Structures are given as structure tokens and as C-alpha cells.
Amino acid sequence: MSTSDFYYDLPEELIAQTPVEPRNHSRLMVLSKKDDSIEHKHFYDLCDYLKKGDLLILNDSRVLPARLYGEKIGTGSAIEFLLLEQKGDKLWEIICRPGKKAREGAEFIFGGGRLKAKVVEVK
């Protein structure tokens, strides 16, 4: 499996900019394992789908609104960085695409050369 398996186009207008109020009115997509049907519900409907012994895992992670478009030094090939978490002074954990261009030691420029980045580790 590759991270590119999870790439898809998502129009900006479909990304919530602020939380819905009240919070339990957020949308909930329910996928049926029985017949592969999809239902569009609200989060307050969640209890209708849980049974005794079910495990509910909540994801409270957030994505920073920081996407950088640049190019690889030496080849000029395009790269996209999504900043995930600051790990130290001038050190960030990122996801990039295409990922194969971000080998350890690779250098990139952004903003017409105003910002430079170097890959120090690939996981």
C-alpha cells in the first residue's frame, strides 16, 4: 500500500472552515457492510448504529492549513508539501507528493526561492 492510494481531489468549498453548531449536528456517513449502501445521517444518530460490545475510536487530529508548492532543486520537478507537525526549530513532519522525489538529502525551494527545505529523514 502506498500513500498515493489515499490521494483524491477535494474541492475547497467542501472543506468545513468552522465547526457546525451545535456540534452533534455534524454530518455522519454510514456504510453498510451488509449491502454496501451509504446513508447520510448526523452525528446525533450514532447511537442508532452502535451495539453492546462495539468499539468506537474517535480521531481528534487536525491538519494545519499549510500546503506548500515548490520544486526540486536541480531538476525543477514540482512537489507539494503538507505540513503536519512542527518537531523542532525549522524541523517539520510532512507528507509530500509525489513522495518518490523526497529522498533523504533532497532539497526543494518554495516561493520562488524565498524558502528552502532539505529532507533529513524518510519514514
List keywords for this structure.
123 residues; mainly beta; Thrombin, subunit H; 7 strands; 0% helix; elongated
Question: Can you walk me through this structure?
Answer:
- The protein has 123 residues and is mainly β.
- The chain has a domain at 67-118: QueA-like (Thrombin, subunit H, Beta Barrel).
- Helices cover 0% and strands 34% of the residues.
- The chain is built from no helices and seven strands.
- Strand 6 (107-110) and strand 7 form a beta hairpin.
- The model has no long low-confidence stretch (mean pLDDT 88).
Mean pLDDT: 88
Corresponding CATH superfamily of one domain: QueA-like
- Work out the helix count: 0
Query: Can you tell me the CATH architecture of one domain?
Result: Beta Barrel
Number of E-type strands = 7
Question: TL;DR of this structure?
Answer:
Helices cover 0% and strands 34% of the residues. The protein has 123 residues and is mainly β.
Q: Which SSEs are present, and which pair or pack?
A:
Blueprint: E1 27-31, E2 38-42, E3 67-72, E4 78-88, E5 91-97, E6 107-110, E7 115-118
Antiparallel strand pairs: 1-2, 3-4, 3-6, 4-5, 6-7
